[in-house]
Amino acid sequence: MSKNILRTKWNTRKSDQVSLLLDAEDVAVLLGCCSKTVRSLAKAGKLKSLRIGRLQKFTRQAIEDFVLQEEAFIRDAGISRGRR
User: Fold this and answer.
1) What CA–CA distance (Å, rounded) separates 76 from 60?
2) pLDDT digits (tens, 9 = 90+) for 41-78
3) Cα torsion for 66, 7, 10, 8, to the nearest 10°?
């Protein structure tokens, strides 16, 4: 997934306001996974998050860093994700 795709999906809320911090559900929409996976990635230290009281929040930069890191891992490992 490229940065351009992420930039077009930043506003996952129904309102026109773009939040500085996203919750696990918003990140799940951006990454195309479930919120439980997002929380697991954060717990494993692969996706940086912030704790504000009991809330777990994610920055846009943390999401971009995660995507770029995963793309680099796939590229460096020579993993193909297409049809054979």
Assistant:
1) 24
2) 999 999 999 999 999 999 999 999 999 999 998 888 88
3) -130
Instruction: Give the CA angle between residues 43, 35, 70 to the nearest 5°.
Output: 65
CA-based nearest residue to 36, from 44, 46, 26, 28: 28
Torsion sign over Cα 51, 55, 39, 72: negative
The helix/strand/coil state of 71 is helix
Polymer length in residues for the chain: 84
The DSSP H or E segment spanning 51 is strand 50-52
- What pTM, to 2 d.p., does this model score? 0.70
d(CA 53, CA 46): 21
Instruction: Give SS3 for 57.
Output: strand
Which residue, chain included where needed, has tokens 């297409």? Answer: 82
